[in-house]
Amino acid sequence: MPPPTSSRQRRGIYLLPNLFTTAALFAGFYAIVAAMAGRFEASALAIFIAMVLDGLDGRIARMTNTQSAFGAEYDSLADVVSFGIAPALIAYEWSLGEMGKVGWLAAFFYAAATALRLARFNTQLGTVDKRYFQGLPCPAAAAVVAGLVWLATDFGLEGADLTLATCGVCLLCGILMVSNIRYSSFKDFNLRERVPFVALLLVVAGFVFVSSDPPLVLFSASALYALHGPVLTLVGRHRRRAARRGSALSKGERAE
Question: Which of 56, 99, 144, 239 is 20 to 30 Å from 255 by CA-CA measure?
């Protein structure tokens, strides 16, 4: 006799967070289609839209207590497309294709680094400090690549004239993704807590600032975030060395 319905494990998925994940996947796929059609501004914008949707699905899942193993796996698979395959193909179609084999190998390196970064992230859930990411997050890396294409296109520059820069950006972002460099996660920011009224004004000012020149502002912000990890690591190492020197000096003074 089958167990009572109430004791059976409920099957199904949570709809709300997975809707945002699906929307992010759609934006990433649209970016690929737009890049193949030569519409690079639209493809870059789709990557940034996918970033916003990807950031919302996790937060909504936590706020509504609808987290699940299915959602986590689905999110990672969508990220491979939106922040791995899509930016790599955009860079290749826009610029790297002019470099022949070197170009598509650089694009593949970026895409493979994204998959490796996500695989490592999934295996380290619950064992790392949630305040930091280990390695450059995939959405931020995709923002640097897509932002470069969008900014150059906005200035009327051709991808064929920036092959070395595009190749360097893809390789550097790929290396940073699989590195052990720490990046701030901003996950300690609680949206459900009360904030001062001025915080809302700062949000409005942020929207105005981005709207003034989206390609320049978004690329600059993503590039600064990508660089802040190495700077944070160097500062941390300097402080630890200074602390060890101070400890050694204090021990020497006590010994005297």
Answer: 239
Q: Report CA torsion sign: 158, 32, 36, 34.
A: negative
Indicate the residue type of 129: D
Interval 91-100: pLDDT, tens: 999 999 999 9
Q: Is 237 exposed, middle or buried (0-12, 13-18, 19+ CB in 10 A)?
A: exposed
Number of helices and strands in the chain (H, E): 9, 2
Token pair recorded at residue 126: 């619950």
Q: Is the dihedral of CA 23, 25, 28, 34 positive or negative?
A: negative
pLDDT, residue 5, reads: 47
Residue 184's φ and ψ, nearest 5 degrees, are -65, 135
Phi, psi torsion values for 132, nearest 5 degrees: -135, 150
Q: Report whether pLDDT(70) > 80.
A: yes
* Residue-range domain boundaries for the chain: 13-187+205-255
The helix-helix angle for 69-80 and 40-63 (nearest 10°) equals: 170
Fold assignment, 13-187+205-255:
Four Helix Bundle (Hemerythrin (Met), subunit A) (1.20.120)
